[in-house]
Amino acid sequence: MTIYSLDLRGMMDDEQTLKVCVGCGGRCCKSFPGSAFPEDFGKTREEILPQLVWALSTQTWVVDTYKDQRFVRPAYKGESQGFGSSCSGDECVFLRDNGCELKYENRPKECRYLKPHVVAEKFKCNTSFNKQEASVAWSRHDDLISDAEQKVKLAEKRKNWKAVERIAI
Ligand code: SF4
Ligand code: SF4
Ligand 1: which atom is nearest the Cα of residue 114? Predict the structure, then answer.
């Protein structure tokens, strides 16, 4: 993993971006984890479900809601498995001193598309893929969220993490 803070947003090819993000130190990751989209977990529903089960079982990914629609995002630091947790600002569980610990391609879509932008020392970084778009995308696969939650809860109850491992392969 690169040690630049820019790795927070994976824009290593852009020198200007590098300077902006290094100087900033990742305030976006410190205020709210980026929203994940269904395609972050797989191309088809058959691929998405096992990956989602695995992700939720690690407790580093959680289900959140935006305007009554569920979506998935990385957990805040210290946030326990929070099915239906509410949105409040805090630091992303994947943020380390040297940047995001996830490889660029494994980061939530919102993180991959966020564009650093600073005007008159004010941060106006933006992305076209925020939690609103994420919740719309997940609305077509809400049943997968329910299925994944159920499987994780069942595995927890039975203390049968082998089953989660099997389904996640
Ligand atoms: S995208 Fe913006 S807020 Fe995030 S690290 Fe870069 S400059 Fe900072
Ligand atoms: S997943 Fe990585 S890039 Fe996205 S908010 Fe968390 S630390 Fe930042």
Answer: 1
Domain that holds residue 102: 5-168
pTM of the entire predicted model: 0.83
- CB 40, CB 54: distance < 8 Å: no
Count of domains forming the chain: 1
- What pLDDT shows up at residue 110? 93
Atom 2 (ligand 1) nearest CA: 116
| Ligand 2 near 10 CB (within 6 A) | no
Give pLDDT, residue 143. Answer: 98
Kindly state the tokens that stand for 77.
């630091």
Alpha helices by DSSP H, listed for 1-130, are 15-24, 27-31, 45-57, 109-113
Encode pLDDT of 76-122 as tens digits: 987 755 544 544 558 999 998 888 899 888 999 999 888 887 777 77
Index of the ligand 2 atom closest to the CA of residue 8: 3
Q: Which ligand is nearest to the CA of 16?
A: 1
Q: What confidence tier does 5 reach under pLDDT thresholds 50, 70, 90?
A: very low
Residues with CB under 6 A from ligand 1: 8-9, 20-21, 24, 26-28, 114, 116, 123, 125
Gap between the Cα atoms of 153 and 33, Å rounded = 23
